[in-house]
Amino acid sequence: MSITPNTDPYALADEISGRHMIDGALRPAASGAVFNVVNPATGSVIGSAAEGDADDVDAAVKAAKRAQKEWAALPARERGKLITECGRRLSDHVEELGRLIALETGKALRTESRVEASVLADMFLFYGGLASELKGETVPFRPDMLTMTIRQPIGVVGAIIPWNVPMLLMALKIAPALVAGNAVVVKSAEEAPLTVLRVVQIMNQVLPAGILNILSGYGPECGGPLVAHPDVGKVTFTGSVETGRIVTRTAADKLIPVTLELGGKSPMIVMADADMDKAIAGALGGMRFTRQGQSCTAASRIFVHADIHDAFVARLKAAVNDMVMGDPLDEKTDIGTIISPQQLEKVKAYIEAGEKAGGTANRCAKLPDDPALKKGLFVQPVIFTDIAPDAPPAREEIFGPVTCIFRFTDYEDALARANDSEYGLAATIWTRDLKTALDASHRLEAGFVQVNQNLVVQANLSYGGIKSSGVGKEASLEAMLEHYTHKKTIILNMG
């Protein structure tokens, strides 16, 4: 049985509105409550989501717990085959999922949403092929004893995901957890609940009932009870530092492990010998302007050598000015909208704070003039120059299309300033000099460092931060083994 793709996002949003996926079935919240899902490009309501609470959490976790033992008893390669089949089916739904996520998040279809849907499918194909790697070791303890280790699943995993790239970030959590033999309960972001629900619905055509469940709702009423539930043995969370601390405290009371992917204030160092064309393209992509800067890895602090600073700023401004802002579902659109009115006000407040601190806010790209988009949550990208290093936009994560460019003359000074942050998620260095590249790669305080490129998260590249940017890794074999299994030591006395 398979679901036929529906590329009309409005009809699809209406079709799946107002429900969770629990124990293999779409069902309303126990209370019957719902909340609106709004198109940020127009301000119109496109559907609703079930407003989950502790009763819904309990139902989902109990379903997961019932199903998990039988799932774990399947040979690992059989689980892998099922996850691979999920990936294949999701590949058939790329256009459908891309259009729906563009509608509910305001991310442009061509530059962002369709790409995310494609990477989503690839992540399941990647992890499905890793099932054979769930293996232990033999240990040379004593000749008369057979000593070995095995990998076993944790049980029920609670996964809490954000709204900026919800499909991909959900896949980073549920694919390794499922292949490892766990059952999963996902709590979606209230701003973007529909597309991830559709993903889980598609996967439930392949998986046994109860193995993968998803709830929508608000943090305190739905996310909190999920983390605190006594039958949840592991929590994986992507979101803000503040919420990450709350999740960690609750998990600590239960003595269960957590994986956290939190914020970032990623530096980009451009040396005088850098390839200017590559560096400009890297700043455009690295700042995630096509995602409206709504990314933990956004290159929001750019350090440019004085010899090329002015030329770099001029070319970056021109490149951003050439980008088209408009309807996210229009193939001509490069840049869509901010996710919510609250986030839009936050971004505007940071821009105002930067100007008050003496920075020059270079506003780029033209706001859309389509009357149908007059209520849309659009904001012009801003490139700050001459801004103080201690100004709020230069220190704090904005999660909007705002970057700060700083001039430097001394490499050691640039490196020190790049590392002067509570965050440590991602960083890049741009140079033709191999010695500088290697030195910066070792000394930049970040979990994900690149030289002369600024790729987004990819399957098989270990991804995660240090300092306040989080705990643990994702997107790799390491993530599956270290974060979704526990190692058991077995000793057989042969004497």
How is this structure best described in words?
With 495 residues, the chain is an alpha/beta fold. It has 2 domains: 9-262 and 469-491, Aldehyde Dehydrogenase, Chain A, domain 1, CATH 3.40.605; 267-459, Aldehyde Dehydrogenase, Chain A, domain 2 (3-Layer(aba) Sandwich). Helix content is 40%, strand content 21%. The protein has a 7-stranded mixed beta sheet, with helices on both faces. α2 packs parallel to α8 (219-228). The chain is globular and about 75 Å long. The model has no long low-confidence stretch (mean pLDDT 97).
Bulk shape: globular
Largest pleated sheet = 7 strands, mixed
Q: So how many helices?
A: 16
- Please give the radius of gyration in angstroms: 23 Å
Order of strands, widest sheet = 14-15-16-13-12-18-19
Helix share of residues? 25-40%
What is the CATH architecture term of the largest domain? 3-Layer(aba) Sandwich
Mean pLDDT: 97
Structural domain tally: 2
**Low-confidence sequence ranges:** none
Strand content: 15-25%
Q: Count all strands and give the number.
A: 22
Question: Between the first and last Cα atoms, what is the distance in angstroms?
Answer: 54 Å
CATH topology of the largest domain: Aldehyde Dehydrogenase, Chain A, domain 1
Structural class, please?
A: alpha/beta
- What's the CATH class label of the largest domain? Alpha Beta
Q: Kindly report the name of the CATH homologous superfamily of the largest domain.
A: Aldehyde Dehydrogenase, Chain A, domain 1
Active site: 261
Protein name: Acyl-CoA reductase
Family: Belongs to the aldehyde dehydrogenase family.
InterPro entries: Ald_DH/histidinol_DH (IPR016161), Ald_DH_C (IPR016163), Ald_DH_CS_CYS (IPR016160), Ald_DH_CS_GLU (IPR029510), Ald_DH_N (IPR016162), Aldehyde_DH_dom (IPR015590)
